[in-house]
């Protein structure tokens, strides 16, 4: 059971979660939650006891110096923090950590218990996978809901995926069994540039969270880092004829589905976001 401290009174909290590991190609999804923690000044309120779920020979603790000669051990775990975005009536409960090495059902049971204890009634999970997607196009984001009612309410599809799953899929299933509304967004990271970071995919995930929650998320230098990442991959392709030819072959394919970034609804949302930010700057 997770012990909390310094929670305070939460306002209509929504959970946003991401886990490093199998679900987190190029660290894109965990970087999105880390950005929310940083930009909104989140405070840690609790952590899962790592002894129950992690193999420390796989995910080793780290040691660092503190105040001169003192030494501190940091254990790999999953932490919960709370953020209060300005100009919003919704608080964020941010979950970020590592995919556990064992006892996944007990792990998700603890998280579900924590979600109930904190009064949240929606969970948003973020993931990233490697895909045959060219870096020159907008990052495809797939969005699914954990149950038909949530899918109908938010205009998403119910998940039809069949195959191996990670902790994001197990956590989403636990939410459905606990009758918690859940949404999952997955970014498609070009597999030929799989090394982290991938700020373009992180930015795309944050845009979807922003739209879903009708929340203004300050992006800082993330858009410029995404452009720089794309320029660097352009340079890589320019210097390697095989990579360049492969990228051209990907660009020549028709996308399997219409990219959400190109839809009329997405364009309207982008314009509304621009107007909100313009109004905020004017005030």
UniProtKB/TrEMBL annotation:
Q: Name one Pfam family in it.
A: PAC2
Q: What is the protein's name according to its record?
A: Carboxylate--amine ligase
């Amino acid at each position: 059971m997770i012990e909390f401290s310094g929670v305070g009174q939460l306002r209509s909290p929504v959970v946003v979660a991401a886990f490093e590991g199998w679900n987190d190609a190029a660290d894109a999804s965990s970087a999105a939650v880390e950005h929310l923690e940083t930009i909104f000044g989140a405070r840690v309120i609790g952590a899962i006891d790592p002894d129950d779920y992690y193999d420390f020979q796989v995910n080793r603790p780290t040691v660092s110096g503190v105040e001169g000669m003192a030494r501190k051990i940091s254990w790999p775990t999953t932490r919960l923090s709370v953020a209060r975005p300005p100009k919003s009536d919704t608080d964020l409960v941010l979950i970020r950590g590592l995919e556990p090495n064992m006892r996944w059902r007990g792990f998700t049971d603890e998280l579900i218990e924590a979600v109930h204890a904190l009064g949240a009634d929606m969970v948003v999970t973020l993931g990233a996978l490697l895909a045959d997607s060219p870096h020159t196009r907008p990052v495809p984001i797939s969005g699914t809901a954990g149950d038909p009612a949530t899918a109908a309410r938010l205009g998403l599809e119910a998940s039809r995926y069949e195959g191996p799953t990670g902790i994001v899929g197990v956590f989403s299933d636990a939410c459905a069994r606990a009758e918690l509304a859940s949404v999952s967004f997955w970014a498609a990271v070009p597999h030929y540039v799989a090394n982290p970071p991938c700020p373009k995919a992180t930015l795309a995930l944050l845009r979807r969270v922003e739209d879903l929650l009708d929340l203004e998320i300050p992006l800082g230098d993330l858009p410029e880092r995404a452009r720089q990442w794309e320029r660097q991959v352009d340079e890589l392709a320019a210097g390697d004829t095989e990579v360049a030819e492969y990228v051209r072959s990907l660009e020549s394919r028709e996308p399997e589905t219409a990219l959400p970034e190109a839809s009329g609804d997405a364009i309207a949302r982008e314009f509304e976001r621009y107007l909100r930010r313009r109004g905020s700057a004017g005030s």
